[in-house]
Known about the structure:
Layout: E1 2-9, H1 16-32, E2 37-39, H2 54-57, H3 60-85, E3 88-90, E4 94-97, E5 103-110, E6 116-120, H4 126-132, E7 143-145, E8 148-152, H5 161-166, E9 172-177, H6 182-199, E10 202-211, E11 220-221, E12 226-228, E13 240-243, E14 250-255, H7 258-267, H8 272-275, H9 279-283
Parallel strand pairs: 1-2, 1-10, 2-3, 8-9, 9-10
Antiparallel strand pairs: 1-14, 3-5, 4-5, 5-6, 7-8, 10-11, 10-12, 12-13
Helix pairs in contact: 1-3
Amino acid sequence: MKVATAAYNLDWLDSWAQYEDKLDRWVAEAAGQGADLLVFPEYGAMELSTLDGAEVAGNLEHSIRAVSDRMEAAQGLHQRLSQTYGVYILGASAPIVDGSGRPVNRAELYAPGGGQDHQDKQIMTRFERDDWDIVPGGPLKLFETSLGKIGVLICYDSEFPLLGRALSEADVILVPSCTEALSGYWRVRIGAMSRALENQCVTVMASLVGNNDWSEAVDMNTGTGGVFGPPDKGFPSTGVLSEGTMNRPGWTYADIDLSVIAEVRADGHVLNRTHWTEQSPRANSITISRV
């Protein structure tokens, strides 16, 4: 498959038609380059809050509700684009108010055949907990697609090895992110590269980029797109298949060969994925030594 991962900048929207045109341009560009799977970043849907004006967009709670209220229409748009251009799309994540009364952070996966499902973020950052009161959503999922098995770890989730291990059957793990500072970008990138190493798979990181004075939530964003694999047979020695230019909006592309993933899992120079279980008895038998 060919993957396109976004460094996505938010815009002030004066109309729904403007949003439709923007998404169509982004999807058309990636599809025109032969991409089969498109990955948008975490909280990229927050630009929809601008459709309700500056007072709503600038208020944390009001902007959450405004975006959640528009997600049904946004899902319809993404599904049409997925079918029109014949591509899989991981849409930008959004705060969704569901039955719990508090929002979850949810990314929707759209299939060109009309299928659709979502992945909720599992572990909240301090900002999400303390300021937004975003709550954990439903369980991790493994999506079986015509492109292979796909998992999603939203931003902070990629920094936790056991969540990655739960997706060890995935050929590709998507990592949509939203990070304010360069240090945050590197935390998520290191997490994504670590999960690729442990699972001997490919991880795909998308980033929100640019500054937005109209928002308390996504006012400063740092990052770029990146595609990573294990530094082993069939992959670059650095593990970096492709990376964009920092803070420059646009797509980053990479070709992913599932047979190479299968080969490195079966006969790599190291077998991290296979040898994972050997950790437990040794980690549980630690002794204290005074020197």
